Amino acid sequence: MKAFGLFVATAGYVGYVPIAPGTAGSAVGLLLLVGIRLFGDPFLEVGVLVVTVVLGVWAAAVGERYAGREDPGLVVIDEVAGMLLTMLWVPLTWSTAVVGFLAFRLFDIVKPSPARNAERLHGGVGIMADDLVAAVYAALTVRLFIWVSTGSVVS
User: Fold this and answer.
1) Distance between CA atoms of 89 and 113, rounded to whole angstroms?
2) Which of 11, 18, 78, 114 could bond 131 through an S-S bridge, CB–CB 3.0 to 4.6 Å?
3) CA gap 24, 123 in Å, rounded
4) For the stretch 18-46, what's the b/e string if a residue is b when 16 or more beta carbons lie within 10 angstroms of its beta carbon?
């Protein structure tokens, strides 16, 4: 189970890239979203997000124990979940993908409140929670971008 947990926590070992593993994990999340969108079912998107979060909490804790420290860089399943939440039910275009990706990375790095507080939670929950809070900020940013650029509201 430890090997599977590490596979999930590192998003298929992407977390081992030597430079910017969180950015690489976010790219995996965006690619996963593109794959989901090919099926065209918006409820599949929610299902994959829920499974990623639930499995991610467990896997992040496995990765933390393996690395022997809190929130190790190799754990990137939180970035995958964050990108899925950022882009949940947002029309996927090049511009929304770029804005969503950059906004999520910014809020994940800066960690505005309450993301910083969520990061203090113990284990896998804390690892996942701060990225999900950052994703809410990024999702609002993408929706604001769509509204400003097109005049339409994404619910």
Assistant:
1) 25
2) 78
3) 22
4) eeebbbbbbbbbbebbeebeeeeeeeebe
Instruction: Please check whether residue 77 is in contact with residue 9, taking contact to mean a CB–CB distance below 8 angstroms.
Output: yes
Q: What is the pLDDT of residue 103?
A: 98
pLDDT in tens, 99-155: 999 999 999 999 888 877 877 788 999 999 999 999 999 999 999 999 999 877 766
How high is the pLDDT of residue 79? 98
Cα 20 vs. chain centroid, distance in angstroms? 14
Chain position carrying tokens 């896997």: 59
Which of 7, 8, 1, 2 is closest to 128 using CA atoms?
8
Name the helix (H) or strand (E) containing 106: helix 94-110
Which positions ≥6 away from 41 have C-beta within 8 Å?
A: none
Q: In the chain, what is the straight-line distance between the N-terminal and C-terminal CA atoms, in Å?
A: 39
Asked if 48 contacts 32 with a C-beta cutoff of 8 angstroms, the reply is yes
Residue 39: per-residue pLDDT = 84
The pTM of this model reads 0.94
The tokens describing 122, both together, are 């113990």
